[in-house]
Design a protein that fits this description.
alpha+beta, Rossmann fold, Elongation Factor Tu (Ef-tu), domain 3, Alpha-Beta Plaits, 5 domains, 38 strands, Ribosome-releasing factor 2, mitochondrial, GTPase activity, P-loop_NTPase
């Protein structure tokens, strides 16, 4: 499969270059116009000379056969281009479909800023809320797209942005409409630039031609909107920027128009980088309107690598700060290079390719590097920068850059989520790196969501078994949100994924790309088991002097794992065990100290061995249906011992694995429960259909109704900002009239739909698409998002087990 990432000009990592680098992502609900907007960005930057079209299947970033056939983005695609001559933008266009959420999660991990695209007709949609939360620590700008459509509501969408996303906003530009007396309709033709005091009009015949007019010289109606908009912008920034307020009062003498645009841009930038507010722009990408101001906003407001968040790592007391030459200075070592692997693909020509983000120092081709996540070293092959299917080899990757590791050595030595370190100057300088900090440094790994659907995968003949296993290994290596397991009763191989479309794409990849000769079964819901109470502590030891005391406890399903970990006051370290909300909890040791480690085997090697044995033991399954365990904490007491002269951890693996299996076997049958995936459902229906839909949800679907609200009035759910009245803020925010809503007053916008939110078992949602169409005569729609695993109720247990 062809890769999808970067091509760029080689530059050295000077302060100026780092400050003019932007690593950004495009995030949104499906069909909001992410790929269309990306295509225009590439065109106006001069990267391409012809605009591709999603419907025609010829866009740059969506070039996989499955993407072009379906007209959707399936995997994150990235590209590099320049803007305003000396700014370099690394852009990742992410999928909008909920089934491919992991692609968003891993892209967000390496981004410094995001552009959130909103559909002006649909407003803030369910998947937009989800990706907003997934990128909650990243500065964003918003682009309200599709302003040319009937029913587009700029002001309505901004209000939703404030209330649903719970964010303050800074209006950078507002829509400009032209009234046609013959048709008596308003058509979108440009934007009112509040920062630069201009009106920008795009020609419908030549979108490259932009007419620029002083806003103060336009017709009174437009001038009034501009003046009120600029006043609102300055007031919003004044909430956080005392220097701007001082300039306004002293230098500008209270005149909103007397504040220079460069001062406003600087103020917006500071507020955006600190996430005080979100700049808002608008346009119509398909009509080529508003894209150039959006690109200006990317370089003007989103952070450089020297202003972005410092990645979270496994060492609490490690010093980390910005440095103009090395990027992030870690442990005071200017020769330390740190990179993070966030994506793996298998290219038919170059083989395994590992996509990385360099956070600190310079990564050199053919150097010896150390994988801290695996405690192993290897020699790099060639480094590559990619643009779609065009490769550009390079000898070095600099701080803030995104590139690719290639060569035979990387295939078995690096996976998604691994941290790689090396010496920036020496070919093999690992001996000069600190053993207890720099060689054990790990950027916190990517969180992998659990699978909710599974299919069986079987070789057509016994002779196809090895090729099947290799093909499965390839797709799981590329996409860790695909999970391979084995049914302990039937011996069947199962492939789990995030949704039916996710598994359909995986099936296509297995059969058509990897030529696996397999039979794939029907899609089934993925169930798990959990324990309801804690085990006793058990101690296992062997003749060589290894001794471990372990127990297994349930993790609450009613509390987030972040809250659970935060409430643990024992000083224990929590290590994730795969994607089933299982954790290894390691108590502080009674005698051994990391800062004075005197054993031959490294501490992290011991922990990695117990991690592996815990995962294997929990996957063995529970007693209800032999399904792998979910939400379990394997606790390691702080009195464990190993021989001082032990050099490897091979004997720790079977000892601790058998111990954990024995602990689980000691629990009685009634200590186990069956878990099922429960979805957060959002149904959008006409008001007249609320009764039948509610009856179906609460009856046949076993749903727990959370709320019924008017469309466009659905409240947000970010409780961290609960002290701020965002509804009042939305009402007080100046916003221009929504001109295109007037066109649609007698159409679909005339009567508001209802939004029903509910928790519902995934099993009960099979074939719901046809049901909602039948109940609403085709006018209803729904969106589901994984909420978590819940216990199967007693009245449904029998039917679930009999599937």
């Amino acid at each position: 499969m062809l890769s999808k990432l970067f091509c760029s000009l080689r530059t050295y990592a000077t302060r100026a270059n780092l400050l003019k680098l932007r690593n950004i992502g495009i995030i949104a609900h499906i069909d909001a116009g992410k790929t269309t907007t990306t295509e225009r960005m590439l065109y106006y930057s001069g990267k391409i000379n012809r605009i591709g079209d999603v419907d025609q299947g010829d866009t740059i970033t969506d070039f996989l056969p499955q993407e072009r056939a379906r007209g959707i983005t399936i995997q994150s695609a990235a590209i590099s281009f320049n803007w305003q001559n000396d700014y370099k933008i690394n852009l990742i266009d992410t999928p909008g479909h909920a089934d491919f959420s992991f692609e968003v999660i891993r892209a967000v991990k390496v981004l410094d800023g995001c552009v959130t695209i909103l559909d002006a007709v649909a407003g803030v949609e369910a998947q937009t809320e989800k990706v907003w939360k997934q990128s909650k620590n990243i500065p964003k700008i918003c682009f309200i797209n599709k302003m040319d459509r009937e029913g587009a509501g700029y002001s309505r969408t901004v209000k939703e942005l404030i209330t649903k996303m719970r964010t303050r906003v800074a209006l950078v530009n507002m829509p400009l409409f032209k009234y046609d007396a013959k048709t008596q309709r308003n058509s979108f033709e440009g934007v009112i630039d509040l920062v630069n005091q201009k009106v920008l009009k795009w020609s419908s015949y030549n979108p490259d031609n932009i007419q620029v007019i002083d806003a103060i010289e336009t017709i009174p109606e437009i001038k009034e909107r501009f003046l009120r908009g600029r006043e609102s912008l300055v007031e919003a920034l004044g909430e956080f920027d005392e220097s701007l307020v001082e300039y306004f009062l002293d230098q500008a003498e209270g005149d909103y128009l007397a504040i220079p645009s460069n001062l406003l841009n600087q103020s917006i930038r500071r507020a955006t980088v600190k996430q005080h507010l979100t700049p808002v722009l608008c346009g119509a990408s398909f009509k080529n309107i508003g894209v150039q101001p959006l690109l200006d906003a990317v370089v003007n407001y989103l952070p450089s690598p020297l202003e972005a968040r410092i990645p979270e790592v496994n060492h609490d007391n490690l010093s980390m700060s910005y440095d103009p030459k090395v990027g992030i200075l870690i442990n005071g070592n200017k020769n330390l290079c740190v990179a993070f692997a966030f994506k793996v693909i298998t290219d038919p020509i170059r083989g395994t390719m590992i996509f990385i983000r360099v956070y600190s120092g310079i990564l050199n081709s053919n150097n010896t590097v150390y994988n801290c996540s695996r405690a192993s070293k290897f020699k790099l092959g060639k480094l590559v920068l990619l643009h779609a299917n065009v490769y550009e080899e390079t000898s070095q990757l600099y701080p803030g850059e995104i590139g690719v590791l290639t060569g035979a050595t990387v295939a078995n030595n690096v996976s998604t989520g691994d941290t790689i370190v090396s010496h920036s100057l020496k070919k093999d300088g690992l001996k000069s790196l600190d053993r207890n900090t720099e060689l054990t440094l790990r950027i916190n790994p990517i969180t992998v969501p659990p699978p909710v659907f599974v299919v069986s995968v079987e070789p057509r003949t016994l002779g196809n078994k090895k090729s099947m296993e290799e093909a499965l290994r390839v797709i799981v290596r590329e996409d860790p949100s695909l999970v391979v397991s084995k049914d302990e009763e039937t011996g069947q191989t199962l492939l789990g994924g995030m949704g039916e479309l996710h598994l359909e794409i995986a099936k296509d990849r297995l059969l058509n790309d990897l030529n696996a000769d397999v039979n794939i079964g029907k899609v089934m819901v993925s169930y798990k088991e959990a324990i309801d109470h804690s085990s006793q502590e058990f101690t296992a030891e062997n003749d060589n002097g290894c001794k471990f005391t372990l127990s297994v406890e349930p993790i609450s399903l009613d509390t987030s794992i972040e809250e659970t970990i935060a409430s643990d006051e024992s000083g224990s370290k929590w290590y994730p065990l795969g994607g089933d909300n299982n954790y290894l909890v390691v108590e502080p040791h009674d005698t051994y100290r990391l800062d004075n480690w005197n054993l031959l085997v490294p501490y992290h090697s011991i922990i990695n061995a117990i991690l592996s044995s815990s995962i294997a033991a929990l996957q063995k399954g529970g007693k209800v249906a032999n399904l792998s365990l979910h939400s379990c904490a394997v606790k390691l007491k702080g009195n464990w011992k190993i021989p001082l002269d032990m050099e490897n951890v091979s004997e720790i693996l079977p000892l601790t694995r058998n111990q954990i299996v024995g602990i689980l076997d000691s629990l009685p049958f009634d200590a186990y429960s069956l878990l099922e995936p429960v979805m957060l459902l959002e149904v959008n229906i006409p008001q007249k259909d609320v009764g039948p839909v509610m009856q179906d949800l609460t009856g046949a679907r076993k749903a727990n109704i959370l709320s019924i609200e008017d469309e466009y009035e659905v409240s947000g759910s970010n409780e961290d900002l609960s002290s701020i009245d965002f509804h009042r803020m939305a009402q007080q925010q100046y916003l221009p009239p929504d001109m295109t809503l007037k066109n649609a007053q007698l159409g679909d916008i005339g009567s508001s739909n209802k939004i029903i939110r509910a928790f519902v078992p995934l099993r009960e949602m099979v074939a719901y698409t046809n049901k909602i169409r039948s109940l609403t005569q085709g006018r209803g729609s729904f969106h589901m998002d994984y909420h978590g695993m819940h216990k199967v109720t007693h009245d449904r247990l029998g039917s679930v087990l009999n599937e």
